[in-house]
């Protein structure tokens, strides 16, 4: 088992993290337009999670579970695109880890963030 943070579901904060991811990727896509696919996936995350950011609340469990699973699916696709276009960087990987932590998927986040570029020796990582 890899060290990870396990926090309660927090869809509003996941939405804010999605915006951070989008900003990081958008700057990269302006340099290289073909990298825009990653920024588009991050934007889809924002759109999915925006209602929860605005309400500052998780929805009732059935809706929360659906949103959580869809956000995780988009996050996994995003990491695949990050790898495909070699967009990895430490800050981006940290944001990916934080996103999955907010989705109550801390262990997956600790693993997938490395694929997105998080430095395995980062002081931000759980020990």
Q: How would you explain this protein's 3D organization?
A:
Helix content is 69%, strand content 0%. The chain is mainly alpha-helical and 127 residues long. It has one domain (11-115). It starts with 10 loop residues before the first helix and ends in a 12-residue tail after the last helix. 36% of the residues are buried. The mean pLDDT is 94.
Number of DSSP helices? 5
Shape field: globular
What oligomeric arrangement do these chains adopt? Answer: single chain
Helix and strand content put the structural class at mainly alpha
| Overall tally of domains | 1
In terms of DSSP E residues, the strand content is under 5%
Mean pLDDT: 94
Write the SSE topology.
Layout: H1 11-31, H2 36-55, H3 61-84, H4 90-102, H5 106-115
Which features would summarize this protein structure in a list?
single chain; mainly alpha; 127 residues; 5 helices
Question: In brief, what are we looking at here?
Answer:
The chain is mostly helical. The protein is 69% helix and 0% strand. The chain is built from five helices and no strands.
